[in-house]
UniProtKB/TrEMBL annotation:
EC number: 6.5.1.1
One Pfam entry name: DNA_ligase_A_M
Annotated segments matching region Disordered: 576-629
GO biological process: one example: lagging strand elongation
Protein name (database record): DNA ligase
Keyword Methyltransferase assigned: no
PANTHER family cross-referenced by the UniProt entry: DNA LIGASE 1/3 FAMILY MEMBER (PTHR45674), DNA LIGASE 3 (PTHR45674:SF9)
NCBIfam families recorded: dnl1
Catalytic activity: ATP + (deoxyribonucleotide)n-3'-hydroxyl + 5'-phospho-(deoxyribonucleotide)m = (deoxyribonucleotide)n+m + AMP + diphosphate
ATP-dependent DNA ligase family profile domain span: 372-532
GO molecular function, one term: DNA ligase (ATP) activity
Highest taxon, organism lineage: Eukaryota
Species assigned in the record: Polarella glacialis (Dinoflagellate)
Acidic residues compositional bias, start-end: 581-595
Length: 717
DNA sequence: ACTGTCTGCCCC
DNA sequence: ATTCTGC
DNA sequence: GCAGAATGGGCAGACAGT
């Protein structure tokens, strides 16, 4: 953070232009997140805004050409240095600088930014070649250690994630106050409070108006005061949506909502339990000019995917004012068709909420208002918040008032648009004065009410019966807090969080992969299966990586593979072996060979020759020392899966796995033939709960049981 | 033209 | 999405 | 209490290879 702040300070001191500051912001934080990689070079919601992705291939090709090195040389360097930026420098040293006819112009943040922006716009065939050429241009122009940083910037995943909103922009804010204080005649140093305040202003401004250029412009023109006024919610510019925190019981939920912030109503806390529809979040804007746009939770522009939503909102708006809505789009199927198929008496039509999986089959491109109803999946919109009306920003209004304004401003339309179902209640117990609660004043007034918990429980049941995931429970007196952080005044209570609800399966680990990063010494994820004792078959259901403690990983990796995986297993060849000897590792051959197989992403072509065959079926061995008793050369007999794990295991025990829903899967083959002739069943959001030491293979969930659970779930809808 | 594989600030 | 760990 | 990591299912699209 200090480094970033100092970098911005020096730019500000030299009166850098807005375009340079903007470029620097993006270049300091090239990766959106560790999940997807990809480079962000402009706001996603902007016209043509799309992330830039540069393949490893393009980077290394450009690097080879720029340095004149051979591929073998590069690999050798990589094995020594383990970091591609350093490799780039070393290769340039070694190869000597290539002589160019014309010296390229020195790089600036702005010029690099512009080039990368250009790359993001490429498409069609031959893009990789063009990308390589343009990267080459940048690499040739790089001086000194610029080369190292340039190469690192190209990578989709930098070793350390630096986030634009969490690190870079706050640093810019800090730099601004520090410089301002220094140049003012009165004050020399900015206080810690001033710095914190500045960071906050910038963070908030960006959450409300995620536009780096607008932020930089405001800062340069009028400092933090200008950021406050200019970087606020605008119709047509999506803001960070407000997020909710998960909560696992109604009692806990009440406590947390009451504690979120003090009540302004004599200790009484009113809350609203809204249905949590299982669809896609949508932030819908209508500008003053009347243009309607739909944005995703990640601020992507989805307008072209949902022309029918746009039309519905236009029809249902009671006025011509600008607005910003928060809503959920869900898939629906017409009710009459379903009933007709069952030969029931025709009902007056209407629609039913369909599963999320149905929504996801909707076309993403070329959806028109005309084909939306026939060619694409039909959808219904559930509104739950209004953040802007006319030129009034409603973010600070309490939810009750925002909701009232929303209901004034829009009219529901059958099958197409409605308000999210909501049940309002007091979270606090009403401790009447008659009971003489005078000696315990505020504490008693703020106690969670037992009847409130009961109301919530019932609402939860109803929401599930109504094809919802559960509840969103909100403080009725709370503001809307656009943020990358989750707020305490919105909590989500999903059926699968609650002990007694949701699907819990008893599955058998049949395979696994080597983990990466902090899990690189362990098996992660694990491949889980049902067991059919009649047929002796195992059908894969899901991979699991969530819910395991480090201790569990360690113990069970040893149990299944005989030892932990070598930490050095990542490097590919001789270099790894050399290094291994010097290390503390008593690198068993087993682990070493495992490392090789995992070497470059896919690997796995060379077949396992593992030391321990699948000889022992005895589950008894608590595998502390010896060879792995549980690893197999190939899938155990009877295994059916579309997945291909790096390691296969002898099925031998039962683990409890929880999930939210059961889905029809193209990859997992459990219960194949029972619901669909080709496809099996899988689990959405799978996570490990605990080992079932009390259960044997024969007690694992069977394909028949799984199919029955699936059918019950679909009937509920 | 067809199929297979991989990617996505994907959506959850 | 979910979950765990380290700060 | 929060940020950061490491990954889940599954879809339409895009691109590569035949």
């Amino acid at each position: 953070e200090t480094i970033l702040t100092n970098a911005f300070r020096s730019m500000l001191a030299r009166a850098a232009q807005a375009s340079e500051l903007e470029a620097a912001c993006y270049l300091f934080a090239p990766a959106k997140d560790a999940q997807s990689g990809g480079h962000r070079m402009r706001p996603d919601w902007a016209e043509g805004g799309r992330p830039l992705s540069i393949s490893r291939g393009s980077i290394s090709s450009a690097l080879l050409e720029a340095t004149g090195a051979s591929r073998a040389e590069m690999n050798r360097m990589y094995n020594q240095l383990h970091e591609i930026g350093e490799v780039a420098l070393a290769l340039r040293e070694r190869g000597g600088r290539q002589r160019l006819l014309r010296l390229p112009a020195p790089l600036t943040a702005g010029s690099v930014h512009r080039t990368l922006l250009g790359l993001a716009d490429l498409s069609g065939s031959g893009v990789e070649k063009t990308k390589t050429q343009r990267l080459l241009g940048l690499l040739r122009a790089a001086e000194g250690s610029e080369l190292k940083w340039l190469v690192r910037t190209f990578l989709p995943h930098m070793a350390a994630g630096i986030s634009l909103e969490a690190s870079v922009l706050p640093a810019l804010g800090a730099a601004w106050v520090i410089q301002a204080a220094q140049t003012s005649s009165v004050q020399v140093r900015a206080t810690a409070d001033e710095i914190r305040e500045a960071q906050d202003v910038v963070r908030t401004g960006y959450a409300l108006r995620p536009d780096v250029r607008a932020l930089v412009d405001a800062l340069l023109e009028g400092g933090l005061a200008r950021v406050r006024t200019a970087c606020t919610l605008h119709a047509g510019v999506p803001m960070q949506p407000m997020l909710a925190k998960p909560c696992t019981s109604t009692e806990e939920l009440l406590k947390r909502l009451i504690g979120a912030f003090p009540s302004s109503d004599n200790g009484v806390v009113r809350i609203s339990a809204e249905f949590k529809y299982d669809g896609q979040r949508a932030q819908i804007h209508r500008s003053a000019a009347g243009e309607i746009r739909v944005y995703s939770r990640k601020l992507d522009d989805m307008t072209s995917k949902y022309p029918d939503v746009v039309a519905a909102v236009r029809r249902c708006a009671r006025s011509q004012q600008a607005f910003v809505l928060d809503a959920e789009i869900v898939a629906v199927v017409s009710r009459s068709t379903g009933d007709a198929a069952l030969g029931e008496a025709a009902r007056p039509g209407g629609v039913e909420i369909a599963a999320f999986q149905t929504l996801s089959t909707r076309k993403r491109k070329h959806v028109t208002e005309v084909n939306a109803a026939s060619a694409a999946v039909a959808v219904k919109l559930f509104l739950f918040d209004l953040l802007l009306r006319g030129d009034e920003v409603l973010l600070q209004w309490p939810l009750v008032q925002r909701r009232a304004a929303m209901r004034e401003e829009f009219a529901a339309e059958a099958d197409v648009l409605d308000f999210a179902e909501a049940i309002d209640l007091d979270a606090t117990a009403i401790v009447s004065a008659a009971h003489g609660a005078t000696d315990m004043p505020s504490a008693s007034a703020s106690a969670p009410s037992a009847s409130a918990a009961a109301v919530l429980d019932e609402a939860l049941q109803r929401s599930v019966a109504g094809s919802c995931e559960g509840l969103m429970v909100k403080r009725l007196d709370g503001p809307y807090e656009p943020s990358t952080k989750r707020s305490d005044s919105w909590l989500k209570l999903k059926k699968d969080y609650v002990e007694s609800m949701g699907d819990s399966l008893d599955l058998v680990p049949i395979g696994g992969w080597r983990g990466s990063g902090r899990k690189s010494r362990w098996i992660s994820p694990w491949l889980m299966a049902t067991f059919d004792p009649e047929e002796g078959t195992f059908g894969s259901v899901c991979r699991v990586m969530s819910g395991f403690s480090d201790k569990f990983y360690k113990e069970n990796t040893i149990r299944y593979l005989g030892s932990e995986l070598s930490a050095l297993g990542k490097a590919s060849d001789a270099a790894a072996t050399e290094a291994a000897t010097e290390a503390e590792q008593e690198a068993e051959e087993d682990a070493e060979e495992v490392g090789d197989a995992a070497s470059d992403g896919e690997g796995g072509s060379d077949l396992d020759v593992c030391g321990a065959g699948g000889e022992s079926d005895d589950v008894g061995s608590q595998g502390g020392g010896g060879k792995s008793a549980l690893r197999l050369h190939r899938a155990a007999p009877g295994v059916d899966t579309g997945d291909k794990p790096q390691f296969w295991f002898q099925p031998s025990e039962v683990w409890e796995i929880r999930g939210a829903d059961i889905t029809i899967s193209p990859k997992h083959m459990a219960a194949k033939g029972l619901v669909d002739p080709q496809k099996g069943l899988s689990l959405r959001f799978p996570r490990f709960m605990k080992k079932r030491e009390d259960k044997r293979l024969q007690d694992a969930t069977t394909p028949q049981q799984l199919a029955a659970m699936f059918l019950k779930q679909t009937q509920q809808r």
